[in-house]
Amino acid sequence: MSAYVAPEADFGPARTLRLGLSRVRYEVRSYFRQLDSVFFTFLFPVLFLLIFAVAFASQNFGPPGHTIGSAQFYLPGMLAAGLLLSGLQNMSLDIAMERSDGTLKRLGGTPLGPAAYFIGKIGQVFVTGALQSALLIVVAGVAFGVPLPTDPARWATFAWVFLLGVTTCAVLGIGLSALPRSGRSATGVVVPIVLVLQFVSGVYIDFAALPTWLQNVASVFPLKWLAQGLRSVFLPESFAAGETVGSWQLPEVALVTGLWLVFGLAVVRVSFRWIRRDT
């Protein structure tokens, strides 16, 4: 008589994936039930796009003969900010709160497992980030008449920059969640980091207008590269001359962001615990 072998569907990767996808649905529903998260992460970039587009409606941006309106100029930056907010800020605050209120401790005693939990979290960021980006693009195109790319290659660039960016920001957010000592202190730890990154990475301010030393500092972090990659999609080709080295540097966008993804995975692997060790 042969020994019983458990079906692969009950254990292993298939089971983890099934639990993870189920967790994605739960996380997305929970996200949209939290009005503060919806406003400060999902709608915040849309609100800022509206503010900048209206406030600077009389100004043109870009080199002479190739100027564009304010809404088109700020669209890539708001898309990049959305990835940072939906990924890094939302993940770090959410997981820090779940660890603080005991949710992670309870999940640690279930069959969920860390891999399925991470699938749920990253899947939620992917869904909300995609909806947010679509909303930003629709608002820019419909409300302000921003011309959208017609070249499929540009949309392909948008796809890989979005996928790499949203995954990197989500993983870094999970890693950063280990830093706050409590859910209450998470906002004070995470939000200043997010705000500083946005101001020095060409999201709210023209990156070329920043001092050279500050550009060099910002170039270490992924947000600057994500914003640059998205500018290559939505701004005219002539704007590439205004970048640091006079080109979009898409290989560098992939390289730097990919390195941060690897770094984030290493941090998560070392630091993630269902319960803080010092509690």
Folded structure, characterized:
The chain is mainly alpha-helical. It has one domain. The chain is built from ten helices and no strands. α1 (13-33) packs across α5 (113-144). It is elongated, with a radius of gyration of 20 Å. The termini are far apart. Mean pLDDT is 90; it is low at 1-9.
Features:
279 residues, mainly alpha, elongated, disordered N terminus
- Total domain modules: 1
What composes the largest sheet? Answer: none
Distance between the termini: 51 Å
Q: Kindly state the mean pLDDT as a whole number?
A: 90
Supply Rg.
Answer: 20 Å
Class computed from helices, strands and strand pairing: mainly alpha
Total number of β-strand segments?
Answer: 0
Would you identify the regions where 5 or more consecutive residues have pLDDT less than 50? 1-9
What's the overall geometry?
elongated
- Write the element-wise H/E pattern from the N-terminal end onward: HHHHHHHHHH
Strand content: under 5%
Helix content: over 70%
**Count of helix runs:** 10
